[in-house]
Amino acid sequence: MKIVRVQTPEGIRYGGVEEEGIRVHEGSPLVAWEPTEVMIPFRDVRLLSPILPTKVVAVGRNYEDHAAELGNVTPDAPAIFLKPSTSVIGPEEAIVLPTASSEVHHEAEMAIVIGTVARNVRAEDANSVILGFTAANDVTARDLQRVDGQWGRAKGFDTFCPLGPAIETEFDPLEDHAIECVVNDEIRQGASIIDMVFGVAELVEFITSAMTLLPGDVILTGTPSGVGPIVAGDRVEVRLDGVGTLANPVVAS
Fold first, then answer.
1. How many CB atoms are closer than 10 A to CB 3?
2. Does residue 68 surpass a pLDDT of 90?
3. Average pLDDT, stretch 212-234?
């Protein structure tokens, strides 16, 4: 099913996507939740980020063509870094360009949403700790990354981690799902998730061998080639087959 997080007159609630709209649930899919009789028509829905993680663990250079386009080689083991929870925004929220950077890039990615406490998880058991998958944009201040090498700063600005529109719990990461980035109706990135160097199970095993992942934490699995600049006035869409489209406007700070 597709799980969303929405703003309602009674506050923020989780919901499930149905043919008629969003069925509001009480509670959280991370603990326990129950469907209510409340159905919100799609036209009235304000989607939020489908999850608020305690941390976002991102993977760099996980597509060979992307590593090559930046003059890098793919690593022998997953290259991971952290994005702060304060970088997370939802669909239709604005990506705000920081004054410290003059070259901000889009990076379309598939994101794993963790559903339970995960520590030292074996690859063959990875599915047992995954709630589902969503789309993400690992927005990056490329000039800062290139000049000072501080990935945490270059990728950690507020609004630099759009997530959404929904968490798909029946998504199979071993299937040939397309991922695209579209800027102002121009396709910038296009690939299949099966082109990843390290797959979902390998990433879960590697990351949980180093740190505990908590329910709701997110893993960004890397971006294919075609990354490029975004400027104020652009509209960026990350399209993940089987999940949906994550769209965000871009504004100046």
1. 23
2. no
3. 98
Q: Is residue 171 part of a domain?
A: yes
Token digits of residue 95: 């990506």
Which CATH number characterizes residue 13's domain? 2.30.30
Q: What does 168-190 look like in DSSP terms, one character per residue?
A: ETT--TTS--EEEEEETTEEEEE
Domain that holds residue 184: 56-252
Cis peptide before 98 (omega within 30 of 0): no
Q: What is the tally of structural domains in the chain?
A: 2
Closest CA to 69 of 40, 107, 20, 104: 107
Residues 85 and 23 in one domain: no
For residue 230, the model assigns a pLDDT of 98
**Is residue 70's pLDDT more than 90?**
no
Per-residue buried b or exposed e for 82-100, using 16+ beta carbons within 10 Å of the residue's own CB: ebbeebbbbbbbebbbbee
Residues 6+ apart with CB under 8 A from 250: 94, 95, 97, 230, 231, 232, 233, 234, 235, 236
**Claim to verify: residue 71 and residue 116 sit in the same structural domain:** yes
Give the model's confidence band at 150: pLDDT under 50 very low, under 70 low, under 90 confident, else very high.
confident
Sign of CA dihedral 151, 162, 235, 69: positive
| Domain co-membership, 177 together with 78 | yes
One domain, residues 132 and 217: yes
Phi-psi region of 16 (alpha: psi -120 to 50; beta: other; left: phi over 0): beta
Indicate if 60 and 127 belong to the same structural domain: yes
Reported pTM: 0.97
Query: Does residue 50 sit within a domain?
Result: no
67, pLDDT greater than 80 = no
Spatial CB neighbours of 199, under 8 Å, sequence gap ≥ 6:
173, 174
